[in-house]
Every structure is written in C-alpha cells, then in structure tokens.
Amino acid sequence: MEAVFIVNPAAQGRKALGRWNSFRKTATFPYQEFMTDSPGHATAIARGFAGRRKEGKFLLIAFGGDGTVHEIIAGAAGADHIVVGSVGAGSGNDFGRGFRSFASAAEIGRYLGGSKDSMAFDLGSADGDFFVNSSGIGFDAVISKATGRSFLKPILNRFGLGKLVYAIYIVRTLFTFRTFNLEVSAGGEQRQYQDVWFATVSNQPYFGGGMKISPASEPSDGLIELTVVSRLSRVKLLFVFGSVFFGAHTAFREVDSLQGRSFSLKADRKVPLHTDGEDAGDTDPERPVVFKVLPGAWRLAGQ
Q1: Adjacent-strand bridge partners of 40
Q2: Residue 163's pLDDT is what?
Q3: How many angstroms separate the CA atoms of 217 and 137, rounded?
Q4: In a domain, 122, yes or no
Q5: Residue 146 included in any domain
Q6: Are residues 112 and 216 in the same domain?
Q7: 121 found inside a domain
Q8: Per-residue pLDDT tens for 225-274?
Q9: CA proximity to 184, closest of 232, 224, 228
Q10: Is the pLDDT of residue 102 over 90?
Q11: CB of 93 within 8 A of CB of 39?
C-alpha cells in the first residue's frame, strides 16, 4: 500500500503548513506529497488515484481540516483500492470527533507495516453533492457560509481561537435570519413544519466544531438522521444551541428527529444549503432537495 499525503497549507489560518513541515520530518516511510491550492483540488487529486485501480492500493491521508477530508472522500468514493486516513490540522475537525484519525507519523507507519485493516463507512448525498459529516438548510448553512468567508477566521486561527467564529456568527445571524416553512417527505409520508430555523441531515453525530447535533447517528448503519428545529423564539434558540454541545437538545419539543435512508426537503423560499460546512448554493422553492445515504461508499484506515 502506497502512502499519499494531500496537504491543505491554508488550513487553520495557514498554521497547517508549519505543522506539516514538522510532521513530515517524523515520517520514516516512503510517501507522495501533494499540496492543494484551491477548492476542489483535493477531490481532483483523489479522483486521479481512484482511476489507478490496476496500480495497487493507496492510503490517501488528509492533512488539513474537515474540508480537505471531505474533498478526498468525495473523490475516492466507490474506489475499493483506496483507503482514507486523516491528520486533523484544521480549526473545526468534526471529522476527527466522529471517525478515527492518525495522531502521528508513527501511527501511520505502524498501520502501513501491519495488517492494514480498514472499515467501510456510509456517505451522504444532497442532490448529488457528497457529505461525510452533515448537510443542511437554513440557519446553520447561513452560519457556515458566513464563517467560510469571514476575515475573522484566519485571524482567530492564528491564536487557536478559530471555533469562536462560529459562536460569533450564531449571535449575529440570530437577529437577521428569517424562518421558513418546510415540507419533509420520508418513507412515503409527508410532514409539515412551520417557522423552521434549520434542518440538518447527519451521517455522524457532530457538526459546527464539536456540536453533537445528532447523537443517534452511526456512520456505518446504512441510515441518515434528520433534525428539524422549528417554532422557537430567538432567545430559546440560543439555549438549544448551548445544549447541542452535550446532545441534550433532543429533549426540547421544538426539536424533531427522524431516521431513514432518504429524505426530501422542500422549503417555501430560497434558503442556503451546506454540505460538510461548505457552501452548496440555495434551495429552489419549486424543487425539493433529496438527501440519500450511500452505504459503505468509502473506507477508513484502521489503527
């Protein structure tokens, strides 16, 4: 198995590059190294290795944040000769909370020299756009879009305070966001929700830099979970967000949770959509967004 590092030098306010320069000195095994230079580059690299099935197996290791590993898995999906690993070097690292990550080059070396176990995990799809952690529409998508474009994020990342950006935009968006009505179709049934703040579809429990939005999510069970938050005052929404870090928000009657293989979500107006915290455009009020699970679509390196 050949090791390949895909490094995002811009992760965590460009701190990832310094971490990589130190990390690479501890690697005692042969490897290839690729530096990403733009959104989608990691996916293109992974897709290139996905087309090299006849050359043997590859361990693609994301060295960056959630966006980097998201892109690699999207590019490697369905390629059984590719195993994905990660070294968390971003500001959020929700992937590392839900999936095993490598802590050191020594761990990677032991994996390459051992039995090379791997486990198949599910992948989510939102109208064809893949997500590993979660996807959603509404309030959380607005925050994800704002934090991704914020000038504050790289500044705070330099001081190890990148997670504060999410909290700052929660408060800011709280006073500007306009709720919407939502139609959910699942398992042949329809549900109507009014005054919706957000609807999140999860493949694993965490989003937003450590919030346990979907405590029941298990990324290898062939199912995805939908969480809808509606009919809340702005003040109470803050309490709900505070409880999400502990997974206690499900006790609120305004929080509804569903489980299934697919969900169709149709909002009554345009609202932002995100996949793994990345901007995925806006919903179309004339057409529902279809979320599906792709069971066992990618493999994670065991340790």
Answers
A1: none
A2: 59
A3: 18
A4: no
A5: yes
A6: no
A7: no
A8: 999 999 999 888 888 877 876 777 878 889 999 999 999 999 999 999 99
A9: 228
A10: yes
A11: no
Find how far residue 47's CA is from the centre of its chain.
Answer: 19
Boundaries of domain holding 242: 129-294
| Position 244, amino acid | V
* DSSP, res 171: H
Please tell me the distance from the alpha carbon of residue 133 to that of residue 40, in angstroms, as a whole number: 17
The radius of gyration of the chain's CA atoms, rounded to the nearest angstrom, is 19
* 299 touches 270 (CB < 8 A): no
Q: Is residue 235 part of a domain?
A: yes
The answer to whether 265 and 241 have CB atoms below 8 angstroms apart is no
In one letter, which amino acid is 36? T
Tally DSSP H helices, then E strands, for the chain: 9, 17
- Using the predicted structure, report yes or no on whether residue 151 has a pLDDT greater than 60: no
Q: What is the value of pTM for the model shown?
A: 0.85
CB distance 211 to 113 below 8 Å: no
Q: Do 93 and 143 reside in the same domain of the chain?
A: no
| Same domain, yes or no: 37 and 108 | yes
pLDDT of 81 higher than 90: yes
Confidence tier at 172 by pLDDT (50, 70, 90):
confident
- Here the CATH number for the domain that contains residue 184 is 2.60.200.40
26 exposed, middle or buried (CB, 10 Å; 0-12, 13-18, 19+)?
exposed
The model's confidence at residue 190, banded by pLDDT at 50, 70 and 90, is very high
